[in-house]
Amino acid sequence: MDEQRKQVEANLSADLVRHLQSQGMTLRRIGESMGLSESFISRVAHRKRSLTIEHLLRLQEATGTPLPLLLLEAVTQDSVPEALAPLYQEAREVLAAGAQTRRSTRKRHRKTA
Question: What domains are there in the chain, each with its CATH number?
Fold first, then answer.
């Protein structure tokens, strides 16, 4: 079980780094937002290290994005245990619908402003 836990932590951490990079953040900027070095974040991206809850809470504060939302956006389908895949997919669909609703609301507010 301990080995499985380490693998899940490494996958989740690497997925989060990749997600932040896809949002335009560099390894250096990601590290700075959590008080970590660029080389540490590089090791995280290569699944050689994992982020701790303290790191994640610093990232949440730095980005202003709730941690559950950051994690849900970052996790790739192949990182989710098979038994949780349906729940994960449902959560992603809810998130996507909420984001679409939020965008539509913003557009309406801009037109009326």
Answer: 2-112 (1.10.260.40)
- Long-range (24+ apart) CB contacts under 8 A made by 60-66 are 62/33, 62/34, 63/33
The enclosing H or E element of 1 equals none
Distance of CA 81 to the CA centre of its chain: 17
Q: Cα dihedral sign for 91, 42, 60, 29?
A: negative
pTM: 0.70
**Among 12, 88, 22, which Cα is nearest to 50's?**
12
Residues whose CB is less than 8 angstroms from the CB of residue 80 and which lie 6 or more positions away in sequence, other chains included = 88
In order, the DSSP letters of 26-61 are -HHHHHHHHT--HHHHHHHHTTSS---HHHHHHHHH
Count CB atoms within 10 A of the CB of residue 45: 19
34-78 residue pLDDT tens: 999 999 999 999 999 999 999 999 999 998 888 888 888 888 766
